[in-house]
Amino acid sequence: MEVLYSAFPMQTLTENVTIPEKYGLKNMPIKKIKTIAIVGAGAMGAAYASMFSDAGNFSLFFLARGERYQRLKKEPLNVNGRSYAIPVLQPEEVEHPADLVLVALKHHHLPEALDDIKAVVGAETTILSVMNGLESEQIIGSVCGMDKMVYAIAVGIDAVREKTHFSYARPGRIIFGEEQPRDHGGRVAGIQEALTRAAIPHEVPADIKRVMWWKFMINVGINQASAVLHAPYGVFQSSPDALALMQLLMQEVVMLAGKVLVNLSRKDLEEWLTVLSTLSPDGKTSMLQDIEAGRKTEVEIFAGKVVSMGVELNIPTPINLTILHIIKAMEEQNKLAAMTH
């Protein structure tokens, strides 16, 4: 089972902005998104594919090749007990650029997918990544063009993977925006219109960079602490020591944020504690589930990123450095265990 769950008090971080009105484009027609390529068919990719498919007014396909292509062709998508006949195409089979490319991959799968993404991108294509971490937009944009990128995070979605079947009860929200507004908000307005049409909850914040860093701070804390302690949320609700480890990891992110002029503070950390107290005690982070299932984690984009930024900015990050070594050692043990079975 794979659960992708996050809960954030986004009302404290975002201000809903209606893009056409913000740019004085209230009466300007928005170019509608019609064709959508989804890259990544895990829990999150599958959930969003089903939502767009249910809307019935998009031309939708999964973009894949190799073993992943063969698997998706062989096993029709099943979400919430319903089968979806969503086409699966290799890049060379795509005749025209997609209007929107939605990237929902694990970080370590992104490099091998970059050429495939580029193959379906045209001048007017918009790319939306709902991947974890702070780096995916820059990585994709370096190949496809930063002018195509709209920054985004997915929060509150409780998509679950059980072998070849997926389910979700809460669609969560996609929070997105441009770090530096371009083309008078046209790409953001197009996404806003498409998500509204697909009934996918969404927000456009006043400061997308701050929102992304806030989620990064939470992931660095709860994901990594839960993985090394093999601890569900309930442990952090009852153990002062587990809570202290999580907070120490997060505090290093707050220090880095100040150096790059992102406004995170102790108050943001305290707001997360309020959310944490509401989570199911038996709930598990995705990183803990990766460790338990013997899968590779995304530690490189959490502790690894914190450590590399600390070196660059001359800020010590000893807690994340220690956690980086611990989790990588745990991954090595999992790999050795798999080889001996």
Descriptive key words:
5-stranded mixed beta sheet; single chain; 8-stranded mixed beta sheet; 46% helix; 16% strand; Rossmann fold; disordered N terminus; alpha/beta; 341 residues
How would you explain this protein's 3D organization?
The protein contains 13 helices and 13 strands. It has helices spanning 19-22, 43-55, 66-74, 110-119, 136-144, 186-197, 208-229, 233-238, 240-259, 266-276, 286-293, 303-313, 318-339; strands at residues 2-4, 35-39, 59-63, 77-79, 82-84, 88-89, 100-103, 126-129, 149-157, 159-162, 165-167, 171-177, 202-203. It is 46% helix and 16% strand. It is α/β, with parallel strands linked by helices. The protein folds into 2 domains: 2-206, Rossmann fold (3-Layer(aba) Sandwich); 210-339, N-(1-d-carboxylethyl)-l-norvaline Dehydrogenase, domain 2 (Orthogonal Bundle). Helix 7 runs parallel beside helix 11 (286-293). Mean pLDDT is 89; it is low at 1-17. 42% of the residues are buried. The strands form 2 sheets. It has an 8-stranded mixed sheet, sandwiched between helices. Strands 1-10-11-4-5 form a 5-stranded mixed sheet. The longest helix is centred in the middle third of the chain and has 22 residues, at 208-229. Strand 4 and strand 5 (82-84) form a beta hairpin.
